[in-house]
């Protein structure tokens, strides 16, 4: 009698360690910012999925939503071939950088970056 084996599900991240680190760092900044949006009275989370998870589970729901976003990015990157996986994760890093450029000043100074720069 032989035992059936499941195919291994190994992660296949882009080759660039810098890109992986940038994704992780910016994802973490965005996850912390999203959590603070539910704690601080002057900031509001706009992402409806994060708000839904927060309404279901409270602050742990915000962390769960962030983990789901990271899992989706890793899954999509896993199934894309090189160099599309690098381009996709690079695009996500740019998106998270844009979020951080808006969210961090909002949390620290109670103003968005355009408001701080008087744009």
TrEMBL record:
Regions crossing the membrane: 17-40, 52-80, 86-109
UniProt keyword list: Membrane, Transmembrane, Transmembrane helix
Protein's name in the database: DUF5658 domain-containing protein
Organism the protein comes from: Haloterrigena alkaliphila
UniProt lineage: Archaea, Methanobacteriati, Methanobacteriota, Stenosarchaea group, Halobacteria
